[in-house]
């Protein structure tokens, strides 16, 4: 549309405010207005200026100011006073053409330093209507004489209106708010990891199930924002609106306008347009970005970047130091652990700060520093030297970090994937992980060098960046670094697509319409990636996190991410044992084989930290019936005439922590005691065996001060207690030798210490787990049925000792196990049985042997290969679902028990009717071979709420009863082993959603064995059950010039230990093996009780002995003082029991941690 308007030029022409516009002469081939012949054009153009003002109605008004050189001062009176101005405004939506007849003025201007010439000034204004928020337009301006029609000049220019305040604020603060939100969510997820998914449609979300590094997605988001800004600084011909739009992201690349602002500072936008002067300072992309952002000159901008980097370094160092001083675990009360945390050396702190800088700011630092080198001929030598020095420092810091810490640890902040956050013995896997992390940092360096160092060669700049992204995608696919639709993969694809689209911005490739369309498309891709690729997942994770914390009905520990963040602190038995009822129930005898406790030299190595038992609170009725009362009462004397074999037996704990102990022959004894505990039945009970051992201890001659020996029969109460405790321990040893049988007529289970069995398929890591729990030497290997014969060993349950409560830790000398700074290691027996395969109940593999061995256990630890690299039969594979193992292994146990029962169900039912027995009595007769008791059977029936008579039960009911009995008799901890494997995380996440989290523990048995081996050989200082490992170098940095006497590590072992520190110990808080045993103890509901001689001094031996708390026994939760008396004293006569302060306690009082758990039993008649 052609419009004609007449404008009068008044004296206001000289006062119009307009900004410089870069222009060129019209191209006849593309101009939309006439182009005068060269001989008709005026001598030159003084300047072209423009301004855009927004009226009250929202319309934009364009004003052109054109100054033309017309000759010397004598030509002013002959100038053309009336001109026709014909110009176009060409946007993406179309082209508008305007024509104006205006008056011009003549004024003298300087040309050069001494020459005065005349210039004709022309002002044209035009209402452009409402322009789009992000717009740019191209104009062709044709001036001709109004009188003759001769053309004077033709100019072309691009105008970019300044961003409106609302648009500018949106582009500035929306990404900033997005980044702060992602940062906040990352901090929350790092502190409070998500335990479980609340929706059922997340199976395909591989990325969400992956292990999260520190501040997940924060590094990806920051680097993407830097990429948007720096790729907007390339030396390409962008549409005018593109650079202003991305310039609002200058903060993330430390491309700042301050604090130093001396010298020339670019205005950015002025008079309603972006003032870009490419004539005097060149047209490099960084130069144009300087002008649009409004920063000082190049030198000052680089100086501001260095200052900002120093601030970032100082802030990171201060934040890390505050985190270190604040004790990294919420609820940490272990002073020894805090001391180790606070002893990190200076080098360790420098490593962390450099890791932050290189992870987040490598690209902008290299880009702007390399850009200084391109101006080396124009800038001062010292400035260029400083830029080169900064680049060298960055390279040296990266090389130093690669040598000092594992490459996978270096990538902790930027590599948001589970793939290589592991400790693997595979050399190829380790090399792949290291190579990918190095690739990430090298590509960031190359990107920065391409953006800043290739500004003068844009045709090389863009292909170089595209090549970097293609290499990254190839590495992702080759190393399988990210899941298919993870944030890392999608952001890499987004960068490739946008860089490919930028080919249209190469000079001469596309016109303004195509460039504008592609510019909008690129901005749309970036916006979609930021809000859908980063903000969307962050919102989702925050909602899940909030839902878990707001849902008070869910257990405290619910899934994988909580299981992986166990507190590294002392075991809290107040919480684990008191608040959480045991599935075993109060009336169940602690069944299984007897614990072979070794002599006093058998103790666990020093440990200052143990795992906290994270057992959620649940109502007691969920697990068991109310306890039946028991009593210790005086009764007429009972003649005990049981005979026990007198064969000497030697019991080995299969542990390197103590030598085997020879058991003295048991003498056949017949003695009558007065006022002893009544046996539970007419046949000899376990109490009888204890008394026989007690007699052996009492009648055995002992050395006295004068060298003579005498018996202690009828001795003092103190002698009774000491002898009873010794006899109790000895009886345990006798009864726990494999296959040992007592000569008793009845098979009713006798009170004894628990036996925990390790079960699982072949090659799942059972023997390795046993070795890690006990330091035993069970045969291990990657072939089926490594274990054929059952392996027994002593494990150590770590509990808080009573000595810590009473401030006598330095005098605590346990008879068995150890006590270090208030953490007591109580021996507990473990059993590793043969591997189980599908069909074991039918005799497949070693099934019958496995199931027969299994019946001795009180609780089970099911070792599951979480890596999925071994199939159901123990053969190597890949991608196997380990959750299947949990289901079929339990089904094999159920099928075995049911098969034995159902095979003779007809005769069982007939006998039941004939003798008019109860269901509990009949089933106990059948289940006694599994180590069951009537209490366990009754509890199983109570769980089902069975009301039908036994003779009416069909096969379905029998199946239900067997399932309930299996749950009661064999409470099982699921030990998810091999957490260091790359495929473990997704499998653990799936299992965590399917199983009760109270029964799940994650561990890396091979890592624990490796650390103990290195500690035993004197290469490291390792605090078991914690994340703390110190090498010789660590101790030297902490101020010990001798390095603690540790040996020097070679490069291979040093790298492996660093991998363990960052990828296992840091992520999980420990190797997890201690928590496996603690979980099993929690299921059994064990409470530690400390028998002492004197409740004032806590001594257990002679009156002048300084040792305290020599003995500790484990009893069931909800046990009474009377139950403890029978367990400790056997059938010895107990007159009364004293608690703390010498106060007498009732036999019906319940024992718990901190209440009635320190007892003194006074022997004699009541």
From TrEMBL:
Signal peptide (from-to): 1-18
One MF term in the entry's GO annotations: GTP binding
Amino acid composition bias (Polar residues), ranges on this chain: 596-614
The OBG-type G domain, residue ranges: 754-1023
Biased composition (Low complexity): 646-656
Region ranges (Disordered): 574-663
SUPFAM superfamilies per the UniProt record, alphabetical: P-loop containing nucleoside triphosphate hydrolases
Gene3D superfamilies from the UniProt entry: 1.10.8.470, 3.10.20.30, P-loop containing nucleotide triphosphate hydrolases
Positions of transmembrane segments: 173-192, 221-241, 302-320, 357-378, 384-402, 435-456, 492-512, 518-545
Biased composition (Basic and acidic residues): 633-642
Keyword Cytoplasm: no
Keywords per UniProt: GTP-binding, Membrane, Nucleotide-binding, Signal, Transmembrane, Transmembrane helix
Any single GO CC term annotated in Swiss-Prot or TrEMBL for this entry: cytoplasm
Name used for this protein in its record: OBG-type G domain-containing protein
Originating organism: Verticillium dahliae
